[in-house]
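hey so u asked for the seq, here:
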Amino acid sequence: MEEPLSRRRLLEVVLAGSAVAMAGCAAPPDRAPRVLIATNEPWGTYHVEPLLAEARRRGWTLTQLVPDRSEIDADEPVPVAVSGAFPEADLLVVTGAGDWPADCLARLPDLPVVASSLAYLPAEEAPRAGEVRARVRAATASSLAEAAAFRANLGLPGDVRIVGSAQTDDLPARAPEPGTVLILTSVTRADATGAAAPGARLLLDSARLLADAGKRVVVGLHPREDRALWSGYEISPVRSVQASAGADVAIGIPGTVFPLVAAVGTPLVGCVDAALEIPDYLRGVCSALIDDPGAAVPAVGQARPLAPDALAAAVGPIGGSASRLLDAWGEAVAAG
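ran it, structure tokens below
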């Protein structure tokens, strides 16, 4: 795990991000930027959706590239374009070096490319990182900790701009209900959008023991999770970040949502499986890590919120993050 950052360094990061947001970005004089986005989860539009409001405010066009519409709902809010019908654009954004982003790069050889971390990746170089790295002219991540993993995953030699996460731009006020525990699920079945995460049995057993101990168990579903698996529990009607504001503690398989829940101020317990590859910074936002369901009840009882320095390192600057990210993309468009 990385060494803790000094308060002075954390302040420099936040101020630098604020300065970028105030400076704005240069857009092409004749039109607003048209941005194509290719993600490691080809149909995972939930990573792009938090950027739509800021894009609309600026008059930008964001389009996610997908292989086909087989996993796209009729009411999908994120504009998508299918393979073979990619629209004209000014920039391609890739969120990793998976097969789909790398394939899109090959099909769009003339576009400038920015790499932006919108979800966590393991801190080891991806098999197709070289293809992506050769085209990347700028890179962004939400925090210094996420940037270190992203840089390692792509083998990036240069700096990664810290912009924060758009999902922290409108955090709910924390109002915990005594005895309420939020279960943060991952994905227990692989599908065309992405792989499954080990550890589901551990989390299911932990939820059962928490309920037996008298806790109110509320489940925050991952967008790709099998809802039927959790049908015996109360399932939150709102997204996990919002639901976490009403929980005493959240427990689950560490993933992208963990730093966002930590930013709300909710303590976290991580369920880890030997087969899981979890970056150190996601482990670090947890008050405790368990690999046995018998440890769930005491770990939840003793969980505490993340310390401010650790929070800043894992989450990055809070507020204005979507604007900072689109500023970075806009600068790449102008330079191109």
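The first helix runs from residue 7 to 23. The chain has a mean pLDDT of 88.
lmk if thats what u needed
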